[in-house]
Structures are given as structure tokens and as C-alpha cells.
Specification:
Blueprint lengths: L13 H17 L9 E5 L5 E3 L15 E3 L5 E3 L15 H11 L3 E5 L2 H6 L8 E4 L17 E6 L9 H10 L5 E4 L3 E6 L2 H23 L16 H10 L22 E4 L9 H22 L3 H19 L15 H17 L5 H16 L11 H10 L3 E5 L4 H9 L10 E5 L9 H11 L7 E5 L2 H9 L3 E5 L17 E2 L10
Length: 512
């Protein structure tokens, strides 16, 4: 049987790691995570060597001398002696464990066949990720917060464990914030900077998997932020009310209801200067698109999506020539050589960017270049620090949030999916761009209102950094607020009537 509980620090020696793994394996078996010799554990020792549990050994009977010792490249340097005439076998988890060590700098990696993990992958059999939000144990996952949500990638199983390696590596790269990867109908891999954090995160993840399963039984989707049914600060308001204006407690009396009845049902947000720095697009996105435009066209030239982008650019250039815009030229035809088409499309796009034009053709092409950049981790959406908490708070209060920006809807979704606040798309109910109309025209806001399902236009609150846009929104019957952040263009001396100005979006619902 494994030794009694030992006192081991986060950076154990090889011998301590041997003892530790035998104890942890017994715990995994006791918790139902490693029955039938399933699962595995590895720990990096203080000297950089890696101690790893063997394959095919009952976890509850694992002994310190049963462990393999590997170097930092995954080569076996010490192996256990044969038992009962049977040579020991290195775990098939070995290449997967090594992936976490090399790609994430892990100090320990653990693999369990927890039933909660297996069933979590079946909540949606076609889902590519497991997601929960607003559960306390999310805070036990490194880099995560209660309101920020928690996502774990799901990869498909294979006949042999080692064949999962490439899929697991891809998932690790696609989800840099995650400290685990789920394997559908199989289990979960969890890692941490040391064995203590790997173990606690494994426990927290399993709690979240089970919570999602139990919530499903109640008809609750754990991936969706809950609607706030009561005023979260109602207890404070009631306490103050009970104290009374003169400092004496009231024996009984009527309680004021929260002001939720006067709050908007929908918030529509502009992006630049409102919830992202005004310079994000001009200083980050536009330069990236310009620098990578030709490469994108060359690498994706034969894809249907790129052919559609080129055709949109061809149509736009023809319109520009017909309108007599200086410097504009029609693009080569469909049968022209690839190099000639790429050069012409890139030149036309650069000319449009130089003129700060926001044509549908240019935005579509830019959006696809940015998508590649976000996926590669070369771009990250720069939201202001107050935006993430505000989005979560509005969702909790039952207020829907929409985006109306000059950028394409795809570009908007990419920004929120890959933001510095994490993937916050769960808080966004819809996206609108200039295909709904120009942002300085009241008709555009009337058009959008038809899609929001409100009974009256004044149930919509629009936040922007542009006085002209705020005026157009109020002309359509919306409420509006101007956001004046550092770095924004100065607001005009004469502001639209009845439009307040705020410094951030924290208390947005209470200003109109």
C-alpha cells in the first residue's frame, strides 16, 4: 500500500516525487478518477528530471519504486525493476505529459478518467469546448475570475493514448488561458506550475464539470451568465432603509423597489473610444492588416472565401472608377495571373486604408486577415479594464448587450473572442455594422431597433464617443450617453440635448 501522507513542497526531489505520486495515485483511485489502472501522474523534480507513474499498474497499490524517471526531453533514464517476471511499461500518456511540460512549462501533469470529465464532454457531443461562468470554483483556475468564465478545449479520442498527442498540442496552442484539455468519452489532462497547483486545479475543474452536469438536470446552462432576479445590493439598501433617516430602526415599513423598472432593456455599444482605446484599430489592427495583406491573399488565393473577397474588391473598384475617384483603377479580370491580381487587390486595399475608407469590401478582407492573426495569437482585443466586469454585470441584471461598430461583424466577434478580458462573447447578444446603415443617420438606429425586440425605442441605451452618433440615436428615440476617455477626440462644446457624459461604462445603466 502507498505510504502515509508525506510533507512535500512544490519542488520535490526525485525521491520525494516518487513517494508523492504513489500517494496521489491512491487518492485518484479513491476519488474514482483512476479505476482499472486508468489515468496517470507525472511530477517534475527540483533538478528538472521528470518522475512518471507506469502504465498497467493498479493505482491504489502503486509504490515509489514503480516509477519511471525521465530527462527533460522525455528520455527514460531510470526504469523500475520487473515485477512477477513482467517488465515495467512507460505510460502511454508520456508524450502528452511532455507536451504540457514543453508548451506550458508545467511542473506537474495529471490525467484522470473522472466520470464527471467524461460526461462533461457529452453535454454537447459536437462542442469543441466546455464552458462555465459565474461559479465560485472558477477562481481556483490560474488566470481566471468569477465573471470571466472558464473554457476547456475538447479533443476527440483515439484508439491509443499516444495518438492524441498532436490534437492535445493543437488545443494547448489554441487555448493559452486553459490549464486543461478534455478528451471526449475519455477523461481530462490537467497541469500546473507545480504539483500543488496541478492537483488543486484538477479538483477545481472536476467540481466545475460536476456542477455543469447537475445544473443541466435543473434545466440551467452553466455556460450562460445568470439573469439577476434580485437587486444584488438590495440587502444594503434594505439595511440603510431600516436604519431610517433619523438613525432609528423602523419596526416595519415599505421598502423601495430597485430602480430596475427605469433601466434600459438593451445596451448597444460602439467599440473605438467607448470600450476599447481609440487607437486600437488605427495603431494595431490597421497596421497588422497592411503588413499581412499580401501574404494572406497569396496563401489563401484559391479559397472560396478569398475569391469572394476579391470579387467584392473588384466591384468596389469599378464603382470608384465610375465615380471618378482619383487614383482608382479597375482590378484585373478573373482569368488574370495570380500575382497580378494579388498585387492589384493589395494596392487597392492599401489605397482605401490610406483614405480611411470603410467600404464593405475592405472590411471583409481586413476581417479575414485579422482572423488569421487572432488565431495565431499575434493579435489580442484591447478592451478597457472596466468593460469585462460591466458586460458581466449587465448580463447578470438581465440587460442584453449588442455591438454597433464600423468594423465588420466578423471583426467584432474576433475582438471579443480574443480580448485581454478573455472570451466575452457570452455577454454579447448580437452584432451590427454599417450594413445596417451609417452610424450618423437616425434611420440606421430605427432599423436596428426592429431587431432588438423592444416595445419602445427608449428601452435602448447607446454608448458612443461620437456626438454625431449620439444625436442620430436620440433622433431615433433611443437613449444615448457619450463616453469621454483619455485619448479620445475632444467632444464638441455643444452636446446633443439630454445626452450625459461619462468617463467609463461602469455605471452606465444608472446615468440615463
Amino acid at each position: 500500500m502507498p505510504p502515509q501522507t508525506i510533507n512535500v513542497g512544490p519542488s520535490p526531489s526525485v525521491e520525494e516525487a516518487r513517494l508523492l505520486i504513489s500517494e496521489l495515485c491512491a487518492d485518484f483511485y479513491k476519488w474514482g478518477w483512476a479505476s482499472g489502472t486508468g489515468g496517470g501522474i507525472s511530477v517534475k523534480a527540483a533538478d528538472g528530471r521528470i518522475v512518471m507513474a507506469p502504465s498497467g499498474v493498479m493505482k491504489e497499490r502503486m509504490q515509489p519504486e514503480d516509477m519511471f524517471v525521465l530527462d527533460s526531453d522525455g528520455n527514460v533514464i531510470e526504469e523500475p525493476a520487473p515485477k512477477h517476471g513482467k517488465p515495467p511499461k512507460l505510460s502511454e500518456c508520456s508524450p502528452l505529459f511532455m507536451s504540457a511540460y514543453k508548451l506550458r512549462g508545467a511542473g506537474a501533469v495529471m490525467h484522470s478518467h473522472s466520470l464527471n470529465a467524461v460526461m462533461a464532454t457529452m453535454l454537447d457531443p459536437s462542442a469543441e469546448e466546455f464552458r462555465v461562468t459565474e461559479l465560485e470554483m472558477i477562481k481556483g483556475i490560474i488566470g481566471h475570475t468569477y465573471f470571466g468564465g472558464c473554457s476547456v478545449p475538447i479533443i476527440e479520442n483515439t484508439a491509443r493514448e499516444c495518438e492524441l498527442t498532436e490534437r492535445l498540442q493543437a488545443a494547448i496552442k489554441l487555448y493559452p488561458e486553459a490549464n486543461a484539455v478534455l478528451v471526449r468519452r475519455h477523461g481530462v489532462y490537467v497541469w500546473g506550475p507545480d504539483w500543488v497547483k496541478a492537483k488543486t486545479q484538477a479538483e477545481c475543474y472536476d467540481y466545475l464539470f460536476q456542477a455543469a452536469l447537475e445544473m443541466r438536470k435543473l434545466g440551467v446552462d452553466a455556460s450562460v451568465a445568470p439573469k439577476q432576479l434580485v437587486d444584488p445590493d438590495g440587502v444594503i439598501a434594505r439595511a440603510k432603509e431600516q436604519e431610517g433617516a433619523n438613525g432609528h430602526a423602523k419596526a416595519n415599513g415599505s421598502r423601495k423597489r430597485p430602480r430596475s423598472a427605469v433601466r434600459p432593456k438593451c445596451v448597444v455599444l460602439d467599440i473605438e473610444g467607448t470600450i476599447a482605446p481609440l487607437t486600437f484599430v488605427s495603431d494595431v489592427l490597421f497596421p497588422y492588416a497592411r503588413a499581412n495583406l499580401r501574404r494572406h491573399l497569396e496563401e489563401t488565393f484559391d479559397m472560396a472565401e478569398t475569391k469572394e473577397d476579391i470579387e467584392l474588391m473588384r466591384e468596389q473598384c469599378a464603382k470608384d472608377v465610375a465615380a471618378g475617384l482619383p487614383g482608382c483603377e479597375e482590378l484585373p479580370g478573373k482569368r488574370a495571373p495570380k500575382a497580378k491580381v494579388v498585387a492589384a487587390v493589395a494596392a487597392a486595399a492599401e489605397r482605401m486604408m490610406d483614405g480611411d475608407r470603410k467600404t464593405t469590401a475592405l472590411k471583409a478582407l481586413q476581417g479575414h486577415v485579422w482572423r488569421t492573426g487572432y488565431a495565431a495569437g499575434e493579435l489580442k482585443g484591447d478592451l478597457t479594464s472596466d468593460t469585462g466586469p460591466a458586460l458581466a454585470a449587465w448580463a447578470a441584471a438581465g440587460v442584453k448587450t449588442y455591438i454597433y461598430s464600423s468594423g465588420s461583424r466578423e471583426a467584432q466577434r474576433l475582438l471579443f473572442a480574443h480580448s485581454n478580458a478573455g472570451d466575452v462573447r457570452q455577454y454579447i447578444s448580437g452584432y451590427f455594422d454599417t450594413t445596417s446603415g451609417a452610424k450618423v443617420e437616425a434611420a440606421s438606429y430605427r432599423n436596428i431597433a426592429l431587431s432588438l425586440g423592444v416595445d419602445a425605442s427608449d428601452e435602448i441605451l447607446f454608448a458612443t464617443d461620437s456626438a454625431a452618433e449620439a444625436e442620430a440615436a436620440t433622433a431615433a428615440g433611443w437613449r444615448a450617453v457619450l463616453v469621454d476617455r483619455p485619448g479620445n477626440k475632444p467632444l464638441p462644446a455643444k452636446l446633443p440635448r439630454g445626452v450625459p457624459v461619462v468617463k467609463d461604462v461602469t455605471g452606465l445603466l444608472d446615468v440615463c
